[in-house]
Amino acid sequence: MASTLQSFIAGRWIGSEAAAPLHSALTNAVIYHTHADKIDFDEAVTYARKTGVPALMQLNFQQRAARLKALALYLLERKEELYAISHQTGATRADSWVDIEGGTGTLFAYASMGSRELPSSNVLHEGPAMALSKNGGFAGTHILVPRGGLAVHINAFNFPIWGLLEKFAPSFLAAMPCIGKPASATSYLTEALVRMMHESGLLPHGALQLVIGSTGDLLDRLNGADVVTFTGSADTAAKLRVNRNLIANSVPFTAEADSLNCAILAPDVTPDDVEFDLFVKEVAREMTGKAGQKCTAIRRIIVPEQMVDAVGTRLRERLAKISVGDPSVEGVRMGALASRDQQRDVAERVELLARGNEVLFSARDGFKPVGEGVAEGAFFAPTLLLCRDGHRNDAVHDVEAFGPVSTIISYNGIDEALALAARGKGSLVSTLVTKEPAIAAYAVPMAAASHGRVLVLDREASVESTGHGSPLPQLKHGGPGRAGGGEELGGIRAVRHFLQRAAVQGSPTMLAAVTGEYVRGAAVQEHDVHPFRKYFEDLATGDSLLTHRRTVSEADIVNFGGVSGDYFYMHFDEVAAKDTQFGQRIAHGYFVLSAAAGLFVSPAPGPVLANYGLDNLRFVAPVAIGDTIRARLTCKRKVDRNRTDDKGVGQGVVAWDVQVTNQRDELVASYDILTLVMKRA
């Protein structure tokens, strides 16, 4: 008997009375029901605000990143349970891998990015601070802070796991409790995921709630501290976007919608080139992967007119080898669409696309799904069409069949190809296959105006390319126009989308207190103990050391040149140096850097374990022979990495502000150094 799915609301599972049936994509048998129990969305929103927000705020960015990593490990250990359920969605093992391990991989990615790039606090400084007055006593900067609201994530049916996790990861880092609403057709897989996440015990109370079925009046209960993200059809996005409450309260709304993505075969590629085979392989993979149910799938294949027949022939040959059916049957490479409703929708759209175009490959070419009980399944034949005039046929640029369907469109000249690509009115991704860097340099800026991501594919990139249809956590996912105009992922950028930016003004000392970072001009603390002799816990932002002085000699320059091999004329040719803007020989910039380190480093063994980075280096003014320099070293920022070394010793990262000045107290060099510092405990 089919079980009834449940929503997870206010810390408890709700749902006992069966409502709408949910069918197996493989056999059309009823496998689950949504629940008929009414959800109290006022309770859900209140729980997120009153319980979820405070619980998340008890953790800082670093601690939330650590939770994400632990959660990813927990889910990965139980992935086979999810694979077994995913099978009913019609997905092959490879399709499910993208969804399941792509989702946990996104958690890992944001855990890693968070641990590297976010502070051990709940204030993210978007510096540097800037002076707003002549003498530097009044300054300003920007900070990002948790919004204090909740995030509603409304997802599509095609990626029931990745779709939730790629939104959850950055919003969780930003301390926003989430209410996830999956599409009903595959919501049983999302429900299984959320049960695992809850059972892990890693999520603070209220951090995640799940809605099975309708969102009811949920959007009417949001305010300006909240956000809404949506993945699905452009029509649904348009309806949600104009919700009166969202507009009245200026609730941020991000959409990722329909996308008629394209792949362009550049005119320099011939059938004898490796790139030609790469193009055909990429198109075929995007047509059949996830049965074409990907927002990034290639819908338009833009090909030079003289290559249309060759591309069509190669694609037909590849598609003919694709075995379709129950993914548990050996050799099956493409599964079913998510539902019979989806099957009917794709058929209707193929009928629209076929008008005025040629059908090169379809169900008539021997389509017969394999496996037991698949006759009633939601299978659809790979379908390839040909449009010989993409300027007169609007359907190929307007109608998306969300399945294994794509259309070849011919062009003459790269400018026409780019014009046809732009007819999609905004897409998530485009691929340009070319051998010539000059073509890429010409085409990509124009393609980028209407596509959120551009893949340039050649034989070199193909060795390690993740492919046209793979959004990566490090890169932006989203596109302009009909693709929704939204932006997801993109590294730490995604976390910033869920934070509130504010400008802060005040004295440097006050800005340092607010941001948790030393701001130049702020008060410092100087102690008898050298800062490098302090354990991580004992260091405070603003702890500072002003070093003794050192006079730079000609011998210093000669010796440094000998050690480094740098005999640049500015350091050694007195006659040539006189004709420069400096009028004399000057010291190597990297000598100044090295000399400053010699001034502030404490050489004995101690808590500072390693110097592993240098940021924001600027050589501000020249240092001449006879100039006297000194350095000020100040603890700028501390980040507790919440980790230990192989011996169990805790560590943290300390960023130090370094200012090197001359005998006239003029700044000659400026930079940050990063050190790994031992904890006392």
**Roughly how much helix do the residues carry, as a percent range?**
25-40%
Structural class: alpha/beta
State the total count of DSSP E strands: 29
Number of separate helices: 21
How far the N terminus sits from the C terminus, by CA atoms, comes to: 56 Å
Principal-axis shape equals: globular
Instruction: Bin the strand percentage.
Output: 25-35%
Q: Rg from C-alpha positions?
A: 30 Å
- Mean pLDDT across the residues is 92
Unreliable spans are none
For the largest beta-sheet, the strand count, sense and barrel status come to: 7 strands, mixed
Q: How are the strands of the biggest sheet laid out side by side?
A: 15-16-17-14-13-18-19
Pfam families: Aldedh, MaoC_dehydratas
Protein name: Phenylacetic acid degradation bifunctional protein PaaZ
Organism: Duganella levis
InterPro entries: Ald_DH/histidinol_DH (IPR016161), Ald_DH_C (IPR016163), Ald_DH_N (IPR016162), Aldehyde_DH_dom (IPR015590), HotDog_dom_sf (IPR029069), MaoC-like_dom (IPR002539), PaaN-DH (IPR011966)
Q: Would you mind describing this structure in some detail?
A:
This protein has 21 helices and 29 strands. The strands form 7 sheets. A 7-stranded mixed beta sheet has the order 15-16-17-14-13-18-19, with helices on both faces. Strands 23, 24, 25, 26, 27, 28 and 29 form a 7-stranded mixed beta sheet that branches. Helix 2 (61-77) packs antiparallel against helix 4. It is globular. Residues 464-486 are annotated as: Disordered.
